Structures are given as structure tokens and as C-alpha cells.
Amino acid sequence: MSDLRDLYQDVILEHCKAPRNYREIPAADHKAEGFNPLCGDRFTVYLALDGDVIRDISFQGTGCAISKASASMMTQMLKGKTREEAEKLFGRFHDLVTGHAPASEEVELGKLAVFSGVSEFPVRVKCATLAWHTLQAALEGKQEAISTE
Ligand code: ZN
């Protein structure tokens, strides 16, 4: 189990050092800002939709390794997905980091399964889900910054 944990840590650190889709989308048709005051994580998520499909997704901001890696992997997983698929995946991811996911869901979550260890640290759940909450706000067209508190 400890080997697996090391591997998970490596994946998170790697995404933290070289976050994917870390840029602004100048022509974004949706964007939102999210803030986690408990940890100081703050991200903006940008979206370009094509009908219901996420044609492009990116993020910028600062935060701890978990929040940054989660945002990075989220953008990787969601490009080309529909709104509905994105919300479903968020539901599964939320179950995972709060320790409610059946093992079968971990498989479906693919790379996001590296965050399963977060369920042991309730304070970190907000770090791991910040980008996803921000994404949801962007999809809903919210103008004000959202906060996890
Ligand atoms: Zn954090």
C-alpha cells in the first residue's frame, strides 16, 4: 500500500510542478474564480463551450499541491466532455475524496483515483474539490467569486 501511496504522491507533485492547461483562454465564454480561505488556494477556471461540449478548459491561480494537481487533472479529463459528463464526474470525484466511492468508481475515475488518499484528511477535501466547484460556478455563469466557506 505504501508503494501505491508514493506513486500517487509522485503524480500529484508532477502535476503541481508542470500543471496542464495552465493558461488563460482570452475568448472564454465562461469563467469563474474560486477561493478556499482555509488553505489560501485561489483559482480561475476558463471554459470555451461548443454547444454542450467543453471545447477548451484551462485554469490559472495559486494553491497547494493538491489543489493545483486537482485543477490540472480536471482540465485534462474534461476537455471534449459534455456538461452532463463533467457534472457526473464531479459527483464521483466528490464521493472519492470524501470516502464514499465504491471501488468500481475508482476505476472509472482513472487518474483522478490518485486523490483517494485525501479522504483521510477532511481539511484537504476543500483543496481537492476547489477547481471543480469553480468549474460548476463557471458553467452556471456565476459572476461572483465562489468560496468554499
Ligand atoms: Zn489547499
Written overview of the protein:
The protein is an alpha+beta fold and 149 residues long. The protein has one domain (2-147): Sufe protein. Chain: A, CATH 3.90.1010. Helix content is 46%, strand content 19%. A four-stranded mixed beta sheet has the order 3-2-1-4, covered by helices on one side. β1 and β2 form a beta hairpin. α1 packs across α2 and α3 (83-97) packs antiparallel against α5 (122-139). It is globular, with a radius of gyration of 14 Å. The protein starts with a helix and ends with a strand. The model has no long low-confidence stretch (mean pLDDT 91). The structure holds zinc ion. Zinc ion binds at residues 36, 39, 41, 63-64, 66-67, 127. Residues 36, 39, 41, 63-64, 66-67, 127 line the site of zinc ion (ZN).
Describe the SSE topology:
Blueprint: H1 2-17, E1 30-36, E2 41-50, E3 53-62, H2 65-78, H3 83-97, H4 103-108, H5 122-139, E4 146-147
Parallel strand pairs: 1-4
Antiparallel strand pairs: 1-2, 2-3
Helix pairs in contact: 1-2, 2-5, 3-5
Bound molecules: zinc ion (ZN).
Zinc ion binds next to helix 2.
